[in-house]
Design goal:
Blueprint: H1 2-31, H2 43-52, H3 56-68, H4 108-135, H5 141-167, H6 180-187, H7 192-220, H8 224-254, H9 259-269, H10 281-286, H11 291-306
Helix pairs in contact: 1-3, 2-3, 2-4, 3-5, 4-5, 5-8, 7-8
This protein binds fe (ii) ion (FE2) (2 copies).
Length: 312
Amino acid sequence: MNLILCLMRRNAYFSRLRRFSAARSDIWNDLMPNALPSSDACARRAALEILCLRDPVEKAARARALYESAFRIDTDTSFAEPDSLPGRPDKPELVAPSSLKRRSMQSDAGRAVLLHALAHIEFNAINLALDAVWRFPSMPQDFYRDWLKVAAEEAYHFSLLTSRLAEFGHVYGDFPAHDGLWDMAQRTRNDVLARMALVPRTLEARGLDASPPIRKRLAQAGDHASAAILDIILRDEVGHVLIGNRWFRHLCDAANLDPHPTYARLAEQYHAPKLRGPFNFDARRDAGFDEAELRALAELDEAASQKPAAPL
Ligand SMILES: [Fe+2]
Ligand SMILES: [Fe+2]
């Protein structure tokens, strides 16, 4: 019975995907005539409209379509913030991080929970990238192009993970999730420098560190299909953190700020999560962290390894 239910849900998910692809241009025309991704439409306004969408499949498809379209960027306009950003579906249920249990990756059920958690991160990452596009005016054109590219890549990651999740008989929304990523977006909503410091350079960079051990456990469990998706995500995420570093440094230069103490000040001011090893030094180097920053992380790692172990 469970198997039949799973297959029905999986088929319903794929038929929704197919229906959406076929109807995509009609939807643009019928529902959001002002959001058409053409050379006449402002991509920042379109990004805000996509951010408001509640259906994750539609949101991911439109984020990718927007980046692939010829668009115009109006850098100067400030848009009014709609209520209750971001648009998201009724499920997954959002709960406190501490109430989410870790599952073994040896079982299909455990890997489905993991894939769902990763898909939720990617759904939030689409929202975060779109938010950077519409929210902060007066940045160079390349800033918006970069974040539109990130939104499209996050949408691709979301699609890869939800397709794989469907092979386990589940859809996005089947398991609870937490809201830590969007919480940081809220805290930094009035400060583009803090957003660049604390979302791509902190939260997304933690993903670079987290990826290799997860990938290893998936491969050990024989799930090479899911491990291959993690490879694609890690490759792209290095680029996202690099973009964060690029614009963080650009903003520091423009304000004549030293990036190192500025980062430390912002991390404290906005209560960023404390950095903890092990760190993926190669990926972080490729993502634009400088040698002084990498040395500071190595010292953190070293200090943590010298702490006496907690009593059992
Ligand atoms: Fe991603
Ligand atoms: Fe990312």
